[in-house]
Amino acid sequence: MNELEHRLQYPHGERIPAPGHTLEVAPGVRWVRMGLPFALDHINLWLLRDEQDGRAGWTVVDCGITDDATRAAWERVFEHELDGLPVLRVIVTHMHPDHIGLAHWLTERWQCRLWISATDFNAARVGSQTTTGYGGESAASFFASHGLTDPDSVAKVRARSNYYASMVPRVPAQYRRLMDGDVLDIGGRAWRCISGYGHAPEHISLYCDELHVLLSGDMVLPRISTNVSVFDMEPEGNPLPLYLASLDRLSPLPEDTLVLPAHGRPFRGLHERVRQLHDHHDARLADVMQACRAAPCSAADILPVLFHRKLDLHQTTFAMGEAIAHLHALWLGGRLKRTAGSDGVYRFAPA
Question: What are the residue boundaries of the Metallo-beta-lactamase domain, all occurrences included (predicted)?
Fold first, then answer.
């Protein structure tokens, strides 16, 4: 546990649910944990006791990626953890593969509806049919324009043209739209939708005032900072200020809120964690400014400034997106200027 984590409270300690099983973390709220084939090796999913149209059952929040292991884990949950009741709906916080990957399978298996923001629904449909930010020719060219020019890396990014669709092969044909401020009746309790930006197009977190529980998705994580990236589909994007403003929208929630994150363990200390994340990005922006004062920098030049460890290709694509996001926040905020070199690479220097 790092120093910042010591300032948070973990009411369940080191306990985590076993694969295919659940752990109750609040009345009517069960924690499911699924594996992921990345350095970030798990995702937390949630079961909420529910009733719709006179039928008792469960609402699933987030799905895991499409693979045989995740399907098998869900089948064990269905057999042992649902008290013989059906899944009544599937809520997805946002369009990233670990959250929406199995939505098509879950909704078909249980003949129920997907609930998600319209923006993320459509982004997921585009991604499942082509690619979105993670690979292919467009992503390779975009990252090359920001300094990732070594032939091996460019070739590997170009070859990942089916990356998103490999984990999200299909998206349900129909959905129910979630919007900021919507209040959902889930099992007789009111859960309010809180939109967030910067990490995904229109991320939806859910807050229950009766329980003081926040299903934070990826907007607030206890151990790592949420990825905030610029990708090729929106090459002049400026997501970091959007993300920081979204964090501030969570600050009015009670200090004793139990945060149920998509990665890491449930924790209390929301206000402290929001402060930590602001401090983290303030420090990274200061580091980027200092590097750009020393010499004009591309995003690739900034990678060792922001990340002090060796990165694999999967991590490098996200790291490049993060580096561009920090540079763009300073550029579009008027503190840096951007120039394109004769080599076609964008570099940033003090304005």
Answer: 42-263
